[in-house]
Amino acid sequence: DGRKPANPAFWWVNDEGDEVKWSFEELGSLSRKAANVLSEACGLQRGDRIVAVLPRVPEWWLLNVACMRAGIVLIPGTSQLTAKDISYRLQASKAKCFVTDDKLAPAVESVLPGSQFLKSKLIVGQGSRDGWLNLKELL
């Protein structure tokens, strides 16, 4: 029909060559679903804080957009944080939710007894852990 294809809103490629490409429509739909996960499954409200410690996977950007949609404050962290760093950030921010992958989840679990504000934990990945919600399953 002579029209050029639309540019993707999001295009991610990892070192192995795996790629994720979302159109603007797909990004909009996924970010609405993710915002609903944060609001409903995690019980977060506008102004609540969430700490996200993830490698730069597609869900990292999806959470950024979802937080903007829901009015939730995203506090990013590097995956090099130690349990002590995580504990400090949880207490200083009064975050109600923590999002990470299965590699860092044990460090988060080790500081849970001292985190009085944390209400929910989201894990990004294929696996599951007791007491953690799986973002992919909820989407």
Number of strand elements: 7
Percent strand: 15-25%
The total of helices stands at: 5
What summary fits the major beta sheet? 5 strands, parallel
Second CATH tier, the architecture: 3-Layer(aba) Sandwich
Helix content: 25-40%
Cα-to-Cα separation, first versus last residue? 35 Å
Give the strand line-up of the largest sheet. Answer: 4-3-5-6-7
Low-confidence stretches: none
Q: What is the SS-derived class? A: alpha/beta
| CATH structural class | Alpha Beta
The CATH topology is given as Rossmann fold
Number of domains: 1
- Net shape: globular
What's the mean pLDDT score?
92
Order of helices and strands: EEHEHEHEHEEH
Radius of gyration: 16 Å
